[in-house]
User: What shape does this take?
Amino acid sequence: EAGVTQFPSHSVIEKGQTVTLRCDPISGHDNLYWYRRVMGKEIKFLLHFVKESKQDESGMPNNRFLAERTGGTYSTLKVQPAELEDSGVYFCASSFTAGGYETQYFGPGTRLLVL
Amino acid sequence: AQSVTQLGSHVSVSEGALVLLRCNYSSSVPPYLFWYVQYPNQGLQLLLKYTSAATLVKGINGFEAEFKKSETSFHLTKPSAHMSDAAEYFCAVSDGNYQLIWGAGTKLIIKP
Assistant: This one.
């Protein structure tokens, strides 16, 4: 069974440009999460989808970030326009709702560098 | 509000020695607790989790952690370190609403 995949693995862009990150969750997982780790800091929650609906987006830093989950499958996270402080590693995770707390499985992350 | 504190951004142990990575949490409700590991150039992998069953939790690769409510701790241990254990380890807590709150991470260095 394929794990969570993320694309691209690395992205280097200039300040003011737009970047779109993609996450493909494990097949059948209805929960999808985005997290971010800014260099030297702890990993922070960004948002949580249940199928195609945003369940919790309390961690989204500002309106330059837009997340979508088309048809409840893959998800994209767009940053427009990118700022220097957006640099970091963006992790995606997915889980299956089966009662109780289900383990979140993580992808390898996308390393974003904004110059 | 929940929070996680990991003592030591870097921990260095000799190969074959005991590994002890410390994690303290704060939570207003019975927590779910996790340890994840990130090997170089890889994603986050679940080592073990506590979800209110046995307080001593065994994970992969010989790691285990003990939930101590009185100390609000969930320290990670391994009796004998191996070179392949070199990685960054993260402790995380959840109150059950799915969002994980993370510690700052501890890089484990294994000396030959």
Remarks:
- Residues 48 and 54 of chain A are 6 Å apart (CA to CA).
- Chain A has a mean pLDDT of 93.
- The interface with chain B takes residues 3-4, 31, 33, 35, 41-45, 48, 55-56, 58-59, 91, 93, 95, 100-101, 103-109 of chain A (CB under 8 Å).
